[in-house]
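Anyone opening a protein record will find just a pair of labelled lines. The record below illustrates this layout.
***
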Amino acid sequence: MNNLQQKAQQLLESGNYGLIVGYEKGTSGKARPVFIRKAEHASKLIFDESCDQNIAVYLYRQEIKHDKKKVIVANHHTLKSIVELAAENQVFDGDFMVLAFAGNGDIIELNTFEEIEKHVATLYHGLTEAEAAMMKKIEDMSLEDRWAFWENEFSKCIKCYACRASCPMCYCPTCTVEINQPQWISVPSHTLGNLEWHVMRAMHLAGRCVTCGQCGKACPLELPIQLLTYKVALDSKQFFDSVAGTSICADNALAIFKPEDHENFIR
């Protein structure tokens, strides 16, 4: 049994924690989320490079929200999401403990949001080389070519909303797409409705996206929709000096006003 499994077993046996949210080996060598309530099942836990899902999305789900004190095994995107959710008052100090990992693989216990925030400050917050290359490729396109690119991608969307379900920052009890009176977003999967959905989603995540890429990974059609929220994340940093998931006291970039902001970017 490895260190993570031993730690999880000890925590459950102590009686102070009733649930471990982490990763287990799934099919085809992929990791998947696992919810462990019994110490004898701690041996299922794994943590390696395949554990790339952002499982912060489960922290406010009704199925476990009111559970006895929880433990979550967190990769760096999950950690950033916890910080952003704390800033938006969606999770609260003392509700759970985080098990993170140092560069040498040692387990780090993080019991408070302040401790999580300090650990997040040591992490890399940029895009991967592949993501940055794709962003540059699209930004270097002419406006006409860029529009044609996204029009083609959006035309494939079936509006399954897997992107929404996988995003920790999409926590509204009722989404705009589910409101029919008045109906803000067209329901059918067609060019206009798909464009409205993806642009609206990107704007709702402006200044809030932690660039985990889960929306793109969850898409059954492999549409690169994560690049939309990456773009607004990069713009939020450039124009507002705002990086989501780095401060538990951060204000939303689109919900604050600063007298010294000349708003040159909208002219």
In short: The chain has a mean pLDDT of 90.
